[in-house]
Amino acid sequence: MPDIDLERISRLEGRNRLLTAWCAVITALAIAILLIPPFGTKVAAQNNPKTLSASELSVVDDHGTVRVRIGAQLPDAVVNGKTLPRGQRAAGILLYDETGEERSGYVTFAPSGNVGLTLDNRDGQTAEFIAGPSGGAGLRIHWQDDAVDLRSDEDGPSIHAVRKKKVAFHEPPVANPESTELCKALRQAKSQLSAEQLWDACRARSSEAACRTCIEK
Asked: Do the beta carbons of residue 56 and residue 70 sit within 8 Å?
């Protein structure tokens, strides 16, 4: 029978207990660090210990690039290094690619009250699905000067296609162009927009005939 070194076994057991204790301490510290909110985040105490209240939460990848941002006051978009104002306050979720470019958002807007889901390429938005606060919704997908628009709102339902900034298809026809909300908005904007801008804005939403009735009268 081989000799058994009882003293050596005792030393090994002591080291094992020490390592186990250190592992427990390191695990506790890691959990505490993960629960600390990101720098600059405002956290409000809650009666429910399972609830975390924060004004913004950012998720980063292994390289430190923000890939997801959840916030009550989201920043403006940055495309190719340039800041593009959203025009309204936005709250919700933003997604970013590995380069840090914004690629999608699911947000509410104020003061309009709209809620929208957007999909972006690295040059800007390429698809939007928007719903209004009191009714109506629209889905728009586009590539450069071409677009397809599916809409149902106060101006009625429509399927609309634009090719090279020119109306290629619009159904059903607009019954009373001058009474539509689009026409009212365009006429109010005549003093701020050029004729080309007015036509582009109208053709993006309505037929050529309806735009002519609205703009030229």
From this structure: yes
pLDDT at residue 54 tops 60? yes
Residue 26 has what pLDDT?
53
What's the rounded Cα separation, in Å, for the pair 212 and 217? 8
| Residues of the domain holding 120 | 50-135
Residues with Cβ within 8 Å of residue 148, at least 6 apart in sequence? 140, 141, 142, 159, 160, 161, 162
- More confident position, 53 or 172: 172
Nearest-5° Cα angle at 185, 182 to 188: 150
| CA–CA distance, 128 with 150 (Å, rounded to integer) | 11
Number of domains in the chain: 2
Query: Is the residue at 39 inside a domain?
Result: no
Residue 5 forms part of a structural domain = no
Torsion 184-185-191-195 (CA) sign: negative
Q: Is residue 25 part of a domain?
A: no
Whether 167 is in a domain gets the answer yes
**Contact yes or no for 140/152 (Cβ under 8 A):** no
Judge if 131 and 156 occupy the same domain.
no
Span of 34-43, 124-133, 172-181 with lowest mean pLDDT: 34-43
pTM passes above 0.70: no
Instruction: Kindly state the tokens that stand for 156.
Output: 């009625």
Q: What is the pLDDT of residue 156?
A: 86
Determine if the peptide bond prior to 49 is cis (ω within 30°): no
Neighbours of 94 (CB within 10 A): 23
